[in-house]
């Protein structure tokens, strides 16, 4: 900025400041405290440069004894909630609601702020937005009346990502300011809107982070020598992925926000993040999702430009929009709004991940002047927690001011979007989706229907056979009629995504289609007569009944691809189960390989009855066991290794096993190092991690050691879900040797996604070479145009793509057709295993003949169907024919390596059975002796 421009800005700010404070009297000392905590006068606005005084209402300053965003301090949930309650007790303009409880039992609180009349009328205002959300019961005349007398609700969500520490304090101050300030703009916000604030949306993570800050970061300001910035966990299961949960709603944080949404119907859900200097207001580069109403895209652009314009005019540098994410995928927490006819948006501000002031370099990608960044940040800034807060709160106040100014338009757009969505289902095909019950796994069908219902998508059920142009559908078929307000989201969830091949690099997944995820069919019909069929509304999520039929002491379970077989094995853990090696017939019915045979055992009948009804499985009783070769399938002792360096993706495995009540040992790095694994577990499961090979082995730098994560009086929130005396150092080569012993001694190791690098690149498995052109998932994020160059040539960034079983008789193939599809993110590519011939000059060439015996499944469809089922792929020609699942013998054991992650965020339920098959049939896999390794003879009977 030129010297002249600088002086102009200062003059303008001081004029504004004087004018802006006029009706408010600043609390004594607040101007000075804020100014002292702000590192540059350009990093504050007149809107937040003081704290208004209010008789009888406690300011955060008075309550906490410091301003919000003070250097070196962070507030935890207990104190924040005490403040929120004190504020509500003192002000008739504030109310507090409990909208949920975290996994660790902490409350999730939400404030509602409006003028006195608004607070008195909350119930009426809520029922008005609910009525606007459903145009089937609110005609246009009624809607206009409601719009005239009601208000949009604007919801702020803070502290979702725990090391993004600023937003919790920003919204506490915002709440107070909105409640007491007499600025005309704020009075209008109170009169025109209801502002909803969730200050600690992920309270478990917040408290862990606050403890972490005081234990490891307080007083440290030199960024080049900071220790790890965040605790290893932000929630019971996940880390960053807590923000990738909207379609599946597995976390309490997500459930609370979804419940809130469907009770209040806020017009805007605004999530506060801290990943981009100095402030990025989201609206995505495109391609935009075709199933979101186009009005939304204009609304969120308009709000972003208003923020950028106003803050630039106030002289605040570095405010930008557009160049972040693509807004094709709406799978984040704020997406509950995008997917339900409201506006989902957010900020990325510049967070230090700490409350200390630091000298920060601003990435060169954020310092150029662009149309979307008219006044870029300087290349280096001294940056404080208060600076970060100033940006967040100023932006929020501008957005609220804009919403208050356009309150009626916002409500009208909200109603119009709901109307458009409903009308599309009435007037344009498809008119409905039909989901037949009989698709091999009735319980998985029921679960997919339950997921739709969890999104308030209405599902009905055919009372009789329905005759349509598309065919006959039997009674009991689930039907999603599209003449409903959430038609657009239903279409988005039930049809394949088609991400443009020439689109910007995506930020995250490009496919979330439920039928692709569940390996099920949902049939779109263009036959409008479906609306005349007698259909019964579903009130509760369905559950497949499960039956035990026939008579006799032997029980048969036909393998038709049921996902619940793993859970069933552990419900029946005390019983002997034989799994058929090949197909057999009984009473005219065919039972494929993988079917279960249970001979007469004491107590078996009752156990089977309860497993059948709980898990929706059908058992048949017969007099004698069929004549077919079987293998025993003892329930294995599972160990899940969770490296301290990355707990995120493996958290989803733990979640899925917990949901299925499947027991496992949680193995920390130190447990692996301690060794003797073979005596403790049969199957070692190592999931996907966003770590390069060196980090998978060596973990967090030892230079930070010791770094305990243990519950103490100073760190009461540490130690869950696992504790450690020192989380640094990884498993090290010592631990790697223990893993090698485990496999050599006859253990089965299963690796998923980039976890397979440890086995294949790390040399636990020999003769499988990495191929160029693939990318580890950790290198594949981005979403900005500049990320494109960093990407490899082969990319499947979260897409459903086709695969073929090379060994259709392998136990991993049980329950699947020979050609199917799986979900794949960006992972390294591996070549077909080869023998090693040459010794000189070319010791890494593996130039011997290919050996495909270890390939269980390969990428691509052998009948040449199009590679992509849903989403998009780039450079797939490098992938097709290469291994998707390898089963390689090592010593007395085996390593099964997946080149994808069948446990992706509890989304790809139809892929999970592949992993369950490997676990269920561990002994059979260990007993397989490929002809190419004659030395590897029968596996011993472990731990008998
Ligand atoms: Zn974030």
Defining key terms:
944 residues; alpha+beta; disordered C terminus; binds zinc ion
Q: Note the total helix count.
A: 28
Radius of gyration: 29 Å
Helix content: 25-40%
Low-confidence stretches: 1-18, 778-791, 931-944
What's the shape?
globular
Give the strand content.
Answer: 15-25%
**Main beta-sheet annotation:** 10 strands, mixed
Bound small molecules, by name, code or SMILES, are: zinc ion
Structural class by SSE content = alpha+beta
Question: Can you put this structure into words, describing what you see?
Answer:
- The chain is of the alpha+beta class and 944 residues long.
- Helix 12 (294-313) packs across helix 14 (385-405).
- The longest helix is centred in the middle third of the chain and has 21 residues, at 385-405.
- Bound molecules: zinc ion.
Quick gist of this model?
The protein is an alpha+beta fold and 944 residues long. The protein is built from 28 helices and 37 strands.
Produce the secondary structure layout.
Blueprint: H1 3-21, H2 30-37, H3 60-64, H4 77-90, E1 94-101, E2 107-113, H5 116-120, H6 122-133, H7 140-149, E3 153-157, H8 166-180, H9 184-192, E4 194-198, H10 203-217, H11 252-264, E5 268-273, E6 279-281, H12 294-313, E7 319-321, H13 335-338, E8 343-349, E9 358-361, E10 380-383, H14 385-405, H15 407-427, E11 432-435, H16 442-454, E12 460-462, E13 466-468, E14 471-473, E15 478-481, H17 487-494, H18 514-518, E16 523-525, E17 535-537, E18 548-550, E19 554-557, H19 565-571, E20 578-580, E21 584-586, E22 589-591, E23 596-598, H20 604-615, E24 619-622, E25 630-632, E26 638-641, H21 648-659, E27 665-667, H22 669-674, E28 683-686, H23 693-698, H24 732-744, E29 748-751, H25 756-760, E30 770-771, H26 787-790, E31 799-805, E32 819-824, E33 829-830, E34 855-859, E35 868-870, E36 883-890, E37 893-898, H27 909-920, H28 922-927
Parallel strand pairs: 3-4, 3-5, 5-8, 6-7, 18-24, 26-27, 26-28, 28-29, 29-37
Antiparallel strand pairs: 1-2, 2-4, 6-8, 9-10, 11-15, 11-16, 12-15, 12-17, 13-14, 19-23, 19-24, 20-23, 20-25, 21-22, 30-33, 31-32, 31-34, 31-35, 34-36, 36-37
Helix pairs in contact: 6-7, 7-15, 8-14, 9-14, 12-14
Bound molecules: zinc ion.
């Amino acid at each position: 900025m030129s010297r002249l421009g600088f002086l102009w800005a200062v003059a303008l700010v001081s004029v504004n400041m004087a004018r802006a404070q006029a009706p408010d009297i600043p609390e004594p000392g607040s101007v000075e405290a804020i100014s002292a905590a702000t590192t540059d006068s350009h990093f504050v606005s007149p809107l937040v440069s003081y704290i208004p005084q209010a008789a009888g209402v406690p300011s955060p300053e008075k309550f906490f004894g410091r301003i919000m965003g003070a250097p070196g301090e962070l507030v935890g949930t207990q104190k924040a909630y005490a403040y929120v309650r004190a504020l509500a007790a003192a002000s008739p303009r504030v109310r507090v609601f409990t909208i949920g409880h975290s996994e660790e039992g902490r409350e999730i609180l939400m404030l509602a702020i409006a003028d006195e009349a608004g607070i008195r009328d909350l119930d009426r205002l809520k029922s008005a937005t609910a009525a606007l959300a459903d145009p089937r019961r609110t005609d246009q005349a009624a809607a206009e009346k409601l719009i005239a007398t009601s208000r949009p609700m604007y919801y702020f969500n803070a502290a979702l990502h725990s090391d993004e520490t600023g937003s919790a304090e920003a919204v506490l101050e915002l709440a107070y300011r909105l409640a007491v300030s007499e600025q005309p703009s704020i009075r209008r916000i109170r009169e025109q809107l209801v502002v909803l604030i969730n200050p600690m949306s992920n309270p478990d993570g917040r408290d862990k982070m606050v403890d972490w800050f005081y234990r490891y970061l307080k007083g440290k300001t030199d960024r080049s020598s900071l220790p790890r910035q965040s605790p290893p966990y932000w929630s019971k299961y996940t880390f960053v992925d807590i923000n990738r949960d909207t379609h599946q709603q597995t976390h309490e944080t997500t459930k609370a926000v979804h419940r809130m949404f469907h009770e209040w119907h806020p017009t805007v859900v605004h999530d506060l993040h801290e990943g981009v200097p100095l402030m990025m207001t989201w609206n995505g580069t495109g391609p935009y999702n075709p199933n979101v109403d186009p009005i939304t895209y204009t609304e969120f652009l308009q709000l972003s430009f208003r923020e950028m314009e106003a803050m630039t005019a106030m002289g605040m540098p570095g405010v930008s929009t557009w160049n972040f994410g693509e807004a094709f995928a709406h799978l984040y927490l704020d997406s509950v709004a995008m997917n339900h006819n409201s506006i989902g948006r957010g900020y990325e501000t510049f967070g230090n991940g700490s409350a200390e002031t630091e000298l920060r370099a601003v990435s060169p990608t954020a310092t150029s002047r662009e149309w979307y960044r008219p006044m870029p940040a300087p290349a280096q800034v001294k940056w404080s927690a208060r600076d970060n807060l100033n940006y967040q709160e100023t932006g929020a106040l501008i957005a609220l001011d804009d919403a208050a100014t356009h309150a009626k338009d916002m409500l009208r757009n909200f109603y119009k979007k709901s109307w458009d969505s409903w009308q599309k289902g009435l007037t344009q095909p498809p008119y409905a989706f039909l989901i037949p019950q009989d698709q091999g796994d009735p319980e998985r069908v029921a679960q997919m229907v339950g997921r739709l219902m969890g999104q308030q998508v209405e599902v009905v059920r055919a009372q009789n056979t329905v005759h349509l142009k598309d065919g006959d559908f039997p009674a009991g078929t689930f039907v999603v009629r599209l003449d409903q307000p959430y038609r657009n989201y239903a279409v988005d969830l039930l049809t394949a995504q088609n991400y443009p091949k020439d689109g910007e690099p995506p930020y995250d997944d490009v496919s979330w289609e439920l039928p692709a995820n569940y390996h099920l069919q949902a049939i779109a019909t263009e036959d409008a007569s479906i609306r005349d069929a007698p259909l019964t509304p579903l009130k509760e999520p369905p559950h497949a009944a499960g039956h035990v039929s026939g008579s006799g002491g032997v029980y048969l379970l036909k393998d038709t691809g049921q996902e619940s077989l793993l859970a069933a094995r552990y419900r029946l853990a005390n019983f002997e189960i034989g799994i058929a090696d090949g197909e057999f017939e009984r009473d005219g019915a065919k039972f494929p390989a993988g079917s279960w045979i249970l001979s007469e055992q004491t107590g078996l009948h009752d156990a089977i009855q309860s497993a059948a009804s709980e898990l929706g499985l059908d058992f048949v009783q017969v007099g004698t066991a069929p004549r077919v070769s079987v293998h025993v399938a003892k329930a294995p002792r599972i160990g899940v290794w969770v490296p301290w360096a990355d707990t995120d993706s493996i958290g989803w495995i733990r979640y899925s096993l917990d949901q299925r009540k499947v027991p496992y040992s949680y193995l920390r790095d130190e447990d692996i190092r301690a060794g003797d694994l073979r005596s403790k577990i049969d199957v070692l499961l190592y999931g996907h991690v966003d770590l390069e090979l060196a980090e998978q082995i060596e973990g967090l730098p030892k230079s930070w050691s010791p770094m305990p994560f243990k519950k103490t009086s100073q760190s009461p929130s540490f130690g869950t879900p696992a504790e450690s005396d020192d989380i640094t150092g990884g498993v090290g080569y010592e631990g790697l040797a223990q893993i090698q012993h485990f496999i050599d001694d006859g253990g089965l190791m299963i690796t998923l996604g980039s976890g397979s690098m440890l086995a294949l690149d790390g040399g636990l498995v020999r003769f499988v070479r990495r191929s160029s052109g693939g990318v580890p998932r950790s290198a594949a994020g981005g979403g900005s145009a500049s990320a494109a160059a960093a990407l490899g040539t082969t990319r499947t960034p979260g897409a459903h793509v086709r695969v073929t079983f090379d060994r259709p008789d392998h136990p991993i193939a049980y329950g699947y057709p020979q050609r199917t599809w799986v979900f794949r993110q960006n992972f390294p590519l591996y070549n077909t295993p080869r023998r090693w011939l040459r010794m000189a000059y070319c010791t890494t060439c593996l130039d011997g003949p290919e050996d495909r015996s270890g390939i269980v499944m390969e990428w691509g469809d052998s009948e040449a169907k199009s590679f992509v089922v849903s989403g998009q792929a780039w450079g797939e020609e490098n992938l097709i024919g290469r291994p998707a699942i390898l089963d390689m013998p090592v010593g007395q054991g085996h390593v099964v390596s997946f080149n994808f992650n069948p446990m992706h965020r509890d989304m790809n339920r139809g892929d999970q059975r592949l992993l369950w098959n490997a676990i269920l049939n561990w002994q059979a896999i260990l007993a397989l002796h490929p002809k190419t390794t004659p030395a590897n003879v029968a596996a011993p009977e472990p731990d008998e």
